[in-house]
Amino acid sequence: MQKAGSMMKSKRNGFTLIEALLSLYVSLLVSMLAFVLILSVYHMYTSRQTIQIEVAILQLRQRCALATCHVQEGILIIDMNHETYQIGYDKHRLVKQPGYEIWMENIDGATFQKQEKGIYLTIDLQGNKQTYQIYEWV
Predict the structure, then answer these.
(1) Nearest residue to 115 via CA among 88, 133, 129
(2) How far is the C-alpha of 53 from the C-alpha of 127, rounded, in Å?
(3) Which of 44, 87, 124, 131 is deepest in the core (most CB within 10 A)?
(4) What 8-state DSSP symbol labels residue 132?
(5) Positive or negative: CA dihedral 44, 50, 53, 54
C-alpha cells in the first residue's frame, strides 16, 4: 500500500505543454506591443520634424508678406514696424536675432538665397537638402 500512495504523490518536473504554449503566447504578445510602441515613437519623431519645418516656413512666409525682406550673406533680413532683425543658422538651429528666438532646431545647415523668382531657404537635414520658397517677387 505504501507503494500506491507514493505513486500518487510523484514529483512533477518541468512544464506541461499548455503552460509552455501559454508562456510563449504571452512573450509573443509583449514583443508585438514593444514593436508597435517603438514604431509609433519613431513616427512621432519624424512627423514632429516635418511639422516643425512646415510651421517655420509658414511663419517666414507670413513675415515676408507683411514686411520688407532681403537676403545678405545667406541670412534673411526683415524690416518690420521700424524694427530690423535677421534670421540665420546658428548651432544647428534657425534663429531670430537680436534675441534668440528659435524657429527650427536639429538641422545641419540653413541658408537663404535670393533668386530671380524670390527668396528661398535651403535646409540640410542629415545630408538631405530641401529647398523652400519663402517669398515670391511681384
Answers:
(1) 133
(2) 16
(3) 87
(4) E
(5) negative
Residue 103: which of 55, 41, 34 has the closest Cα?
55
Taking alpha carbons only, the member of 81, 30, 86 closest to residue 60 is 86
Cα(51)–Cα(41) distance, rounded to whole angstroms? Answer: 15
- Reading the chain (138 residues) residue by residue, the pLDDT tens digits are 455 555 556 567 788 889 999 999 999 999 999 999 999 988 887 777 788 889 999 999 999 999 999 999 999 999 988 899 999 999 999 999 988 899 999 899 999 999 988 999 999 988 899 999 999 877
Strand partners, 86: 77, 97
Tell me if 121 sits within 8 A of 110, measured CB to CB: yes
- Beta strands, E only, 21-66: none
Decide: 85 and 78 in contact? Cβ < 8 Å. yes
CA distance 5 to 36: 52
d(CA 16, CA 95): 64
